[in-house]
What we know:
Elements: E1 2-6, E2 9-14, E3 17-21, H1 34-106, E4 110-115, E5 120-123, H2 126-131, H3 135-138, H4 150-161, E6 168-176, E7 181-191, E8 199-208, H5 210-247, H6 253-284, E9 291-294, H7 296-313, E10 317-321, E11 329-332, H8 333-349, E12 356-364, E13 367-374, H9 397-401, H10 408-418, E14 422-428, E15 432-439, H11 441-444
Parallel strand pairs: 10-12
Antiparallel strand pairs: 1-2, 2-3, 4-5, 4-8, 6-7, 7-8, 9-11, 12-13, 13-15, 14-15
The chain binds adenosine-5'-diphosphate.
Adenosine-5'-diphosphate binds at residues 346-347, 350, 374, 376-377, 379, 387, 392-394, 399, 404-410, 433.
Amino acid sequence: MRATQYRDEVWIxxxxxxxxxxxxxxxxxPVDMVLPAALFLALLVLFLAVLGLAxxxxxxxxxxxxxxxxxxxxxxxxxxxxxxxxxxxxxxxGYRRERIEAVIEAFPxxxxxxxxxxxxxxxxxxxxxxxxxxxxEIINHRVSExxxxxxxxxxxxxxxxxxxxxxxxxxxxxxxxxxxRRVTLFVRTVFALRGADRPLGVxxxxxxxxxxxxxxxxxxxxxxxxxxxxxxxxxxxxxxGEQLRELVDPANTNAVQSANxxxxxxxxxxxxxxxxxxxxxxxxxTLSLDMQRVRLHDLLEDCMENVDYxxxxxxxxxxxxxxxxIAPVRxxxxxxxxAITNLLNNAVKYNREGGEIILSAEESSEGFVLSVQDTGIxxxxxxxxxxxxxxxxxxxxxxxxxxxxxxxxxxxxxIAELHHGRIEVSSQMGIGSRFQIVIPMAQVLL
Length: 446
Ligand code: ADP
């Protein structure tokens, strides 16, 4: 390298290339260097501009990318949270389902849930012990398709057919008559928790009630035995009471009252005992109907006479309403007399002083209708579903004060059913009640 000094310039040679280093400002370049220098400068400026632009674009790109990344990170963490929540709620649901299944399985009774189409969707293992079919044999199947005894299928089908709205139903069934193995079947419509009028299906519960049945049977047998033992002595009390009533001096009011009380009480006890004995015969299945030609007018007049004394003592007006041309019918006279007399006794007992009783018979499209109507205290709405249950008595203070055993209506119902009929009641508090025994025409026609 060589260097030549011209005044304040330094010329430096490096091979053929001549470069100028300016020592001082404002010293003009040699002419032959202006164009390349300008070109160089322009290129430099252009390069710097392009570089600047690129940098700005790069910066914008980078910030957009950063934003994208941040958004992606936020989305990702949201998704992670959702996934976590789903896992937790899935586990929770699984845990709940497991618990519900465990509770259903631990239940001492067989439980089957039938969906709206009548197919079993849930069931516990007890069904195998009671009905003899495994859950897998009934799940997804309708009752008619279950591989079990026809009696069970028929009982469930009848119960399901009898379900109306919110009601439920119950029936007893012997699985094994020889060993008196009994089950009780309950059905109840299941409604959604929210939207209580939306039915989801039916719950069927089958419970072994052999022990209850045997205990009940033992009690009933004992009561029937005692009733039977009391029947003869009570008959004697009644007989001597009536003799006494005829013998006493009518002027001796104390003696007359005592004789009347003996007769009334003996009569009440005799009716109770007769009811108990009839019930025990019906329940034991040993009672066979003695169907015979009956003139309704005679039969109902006879019933009315049975309560005449008590009705008159209460100042009641009794009316018999029977069409003169009503045809003779076929009935078990003795049993129908018991049923109607029970209804009449109630019409007297629950009536008001000076009230009215109407006993009527008529033919309707449904059959023969025998009605007992009174102007008594009426029956509270809450008692209506239970009136015909054995031993049921109203808790209404007025009804309680008039005494009773809750057997009369139960027996009347059983007698109506023995005739393939039914018993109905309508009542208005403070106005009165009407009981009707309806027997299908086909049963009573001669
Ligand atoms: P009991 O009269 O012996 O209690 P029932 O079986 O004959 O038994 O009647 C059951 C219940 O029904 C009674 O306790 C009473 O509350 C009600 N009941 C029955 N008949 C009438 C009636 N005619 N009027 C009002 N309540 C009645």
